[in-house]
Amino acid sequence: MRVKRYVVDSMPDALQKIRTDLGKDAVIINTKEIRSGGFLGMFSKKKIEVIAATDSAAGSGQPASGKSATATLAKPAAPAANALVGSTAAAAAYGMQRDREREAQPALSFPDVPDVLPASPPLQAVPAGAPPVSASGRVREDTLLEEIKQMKEMMKKLSSQRMPEADRDPVLTELERRLLDQEIDSQIVQELLARVSEEAEAEDVPVTEEFAIRSLRMQLHTLLQPQGGKAIAFDTRIAHFVGPTGVGKTTTIAKLAAEQVLKHRRKVGFITSDTYRIAAVEQLKTYATILNLPLEVVFSPLDLNKAFENLKDCDLIFMDTAGRNFRNEMYVSELNALLQSGGKSETFLVLSLTTKYKDMKAITYNFSKFKLDKVLFTKKDETDSYGAVVNLIRDFGLQTSYIANGQSVPDDIEELNERQLIDWILEDNNHE
């Protein structure tokens, strides 16, 4: 086994030298571009480093015909059978040769050449009389076959998932667009539509729009089915309202307080801890004056007992909290200290339908670590996308309560109606 290293200006020069030195059966093990000469890395010239080897003991002196030798050297990925058998030996011989060159030329200006095994050649029939393939060679071949098999399976799976648009059911395609426009999570959409197909197959009927809509209504109604009462319970004494800034907590409290006073004839009081926002206390004080209701302002949990004592004659107390960055768990933990109170209480998480679901999810996740009873949605009048309600109930299993659709007090609020919500979701908002 002979291994030689050449540094040349071009590949034709390398081929000529290899044919002359090693003969027509030589194979190229590795090639790479290097820089030679210059001063401190400047003015250096590009060179090509070529590592070649042959099994021939003589190896030299018989340059082959130009066509044959060029074909052998220009295609190192498909060497002769003896190169496959001796690949491990060629790498070992190359390493020994390189060590000898290092000792003989310690000041060599070329960069160090890493140990490189020849690329695994394609499988081919072994000629009669050729030496048997080694065990390590068989292992490499088996590994290569297994990788090819896995790649074929992966490509087949990918091609089956990317069904052409023309092959998809047009009814399901349109409903998928409609549900995704409502910002329902794509996984939920796929589950809903898969169920539609299963039901149609079980009943042996075509997937018409009427059939699909009916199936989706039933599935969404089951998903959104409330687990308890939506309104403030009659025996609730304290109703806490929490949520991020700007969702309309104070206005919502005024609407619900007016309903309790005018419709249910209950004696109501207000507590606010929203001392961060400018004029927040004045806003709630204005509503309290209009409704002739008492108002207490607390600056810390230490003030709560005094506030409850002052409002002990009230049947129901509405507590307004400060809107903070409730994506930050620290703020939620601080607020939780204000929610500790005697008597039966309910905590309403107030969320705006105009908020991105990703942010809704982060806020709800932080609050769900503490006491959270119901969720209330605001700003229905500012959007025509309601899929976040489906996502939130699916992800957290929350009990829905009210939905606000304007700023008028006390009119623009009502209990969330699941059937109406489903109508909003399935309605085509993009028709001309």
UniProtKB/TrEMBL annotation:
Q: Which family does it belong to?
A: Belongs to the GTP-binding SRP family.
Please tell me whether the keyword Cell membrane is annotated for this protein: yes
Q: What is the recorded membrane topology of this protein? A: Peripheral membrane protein
Q: Where is this region: Disordered?
A: 110-139
Q: Which domain of life is it from?
A: Bacteria
Q: What does this protein do?
A: Necessary for flagellar biosynthesis. May be involved in translocation of the flagellum.
* The species this protein was found in: Paenibacillus ehimensis
Q: Where is the sequence biased in composition, kind Low complexity?
A: 125-137
User: Per UniProt, what is the name of the gene that codes for the protein in this document?
Assistant: flhF
Q: What is its main location?
A: membrane
Question: What are the subcellular locations of this protein?
Answer: Cell membrane
Could you tell me what this protein is called? Flagellar biosynthesis protein FlhF
- InterPro entries per the UniProt record, alphabetical: AAA+_ATPase, FlhF, FlhF__GTPase_dom, P-loop_NTPase, SRP54_GTPase_dom
Keyword annotations from UniProtKB, A to Z: Bacterial flagellum biogenesis, Bacterial flagellum protein export, Cell membrane, Cell projection, Cilium, Flagellum, GTP-binding, Membrane, Nucleotide-binding, Protein transport, Transport
CDD domains according to UniProt? FlhF (cd17873)
Q: Which SMART domains match?
A: AAA, SRP54
Domain SRP54-type proteins GTP-binding residue range list: 236-427
Domain called AAA+ ATPase: residue spans: 235-382
